[in-house]
Automatic annotation (TrEMBL):
Reaction catalysed by this enzyme: AMP + ATP = 2 ADP
Entry's family note: Belongs to the adenylate kinase family.
Protein name as catalogued: adenylate kinase
Pfam family, one: ADK
Gene3D superfamilies: P-loop containing nucleotide triphosphate hydrolases
GO molecular function: AMP kinase activity; ATP binding
Length: 292
């Protein structure tokens, strides 16, 4: 526990500091507050060496990709298939945005301007979610929407070992159409997409066909558009991704942990191909589950 406090202190120093620190059992973290004494505790390396074998071999994956590429959809499906928690930063942020608090209003302003959130804000929100998971005994994870910057990557590397980073890719023009077609039911919160995408490939490349995901009649008159799903904001977010998040891809590629995966169609076409792509990286006990 004392060594975990030291790890938490180093984590927040990497990410710019915050009033929250992190504990870790190898794959989940817990928010806590530490006094000045934390700086006098054992080094992170000593804490890291005490982790159990099971915690080091637990499935710990990250989904990367441009906004709108489908990280949440496929990460959620894969997490459910493999029986591990799906931790989606986008959902956590949107929940905070719905709160009429100073923090929620600040996040709303940043999102509407198409800006990435500061590391300290992201880490504080993530801490709240992971604290709940720790208390519930969660093991393993599929992270979606985190890390987004090189400093966040380095922070995550200090406290756990990522096994695989799945990088979803999709053409920019298709991404823009897909994002602008997103809708949310104000009643039940379910996500839909009204875009009907059918484009030919560049220079004779493959066709990309993504039919709309339309709501049932009970939701049809309750659809809302996210405030940040305008073309100008979407393009700003894609530019920011190229600037801030490409170094994240490069970092994991250099470690031999990055798996590029091109999305070439809707869910029915993409899902089985995704399962085939990740099977070589699954723990032996998960292979039979993924094959089902």
């Amino acid at each position: 526990m004392r060594a975990a406090a030291q790890a938490a202190s180093r984590l927040l120093a990497t990410c710019g500091g915050s009033s929250h620190s992190f504990l870790s059992n190898g794959f989940t973290f817990q928010a806590a507050r530490w006094g000045h004494a934390a700086a006098q505790q054992e080094p992170f390396e000593a804490w890291n060496s005490t982790r159990s074998v099971s915690s080091r071999t637990s499935l710990q994956w990250i989904f990367l990709g441009c906004p709108g590429v489908g990280k949440g959809t496929y990460a959620s499906r894969l997490a459910k298939t493999l029986g591990v928690p799906h931790i989606a930063m986008g959902d956590i942020v949107r929940q905070e945005l719905s709160q009429d608090t100073p923090s929620g209003l600040k996040l709303k302003k940043l999102m509407n301007e198409g800006k990435l959130l500061p590391d300290e804000i992201v880490l504080e929100l993530l801490a709240k979610r992971l604290e709940t998971g720790t208390a519930a005994g969660e093991s393993g994870f599929i992270l979606d929407g985190f890390p987004r910057t090189r400093s966040q990557v380095e922070a995550l590397d200090r406290i756990t070992d990522i096994d695989l980073v799945l990088n979803l890719r999709l053409r920019e023009d298709v991404l823009i159409m897909k994002c602008m077609g997103r809708r949310i039911c104000s009643g039940c919160g379910t996500n839909y997409n009204v875009a009907n995408i059918d484009v030919g490939g560049d220079d004779g490349g493959p066709r990309i066909f993504m039919p709309p995901l339309l709501p049932p009649p009970s939701c049809a008159d309750k659809l809302t558009v996210r405030a940040d799903d305008t073309e100008d904001v979407i393009r700003a977010r894609l530019n920011l991704y190229a600037e801030e998040c490409k170094p994240v891809e490069d970092y994991y590629r250099a470690q031999g942990k990055l798996l590029d995966f091109d999305v070439m169609g809707g869910i029915p076409e993409t899902w089985p191909k995704l399962l085939d792509a990740v099977k070589p990286f699954l723990p032996e006990e998960s292979l039979s589950v993924a094959a089902a």
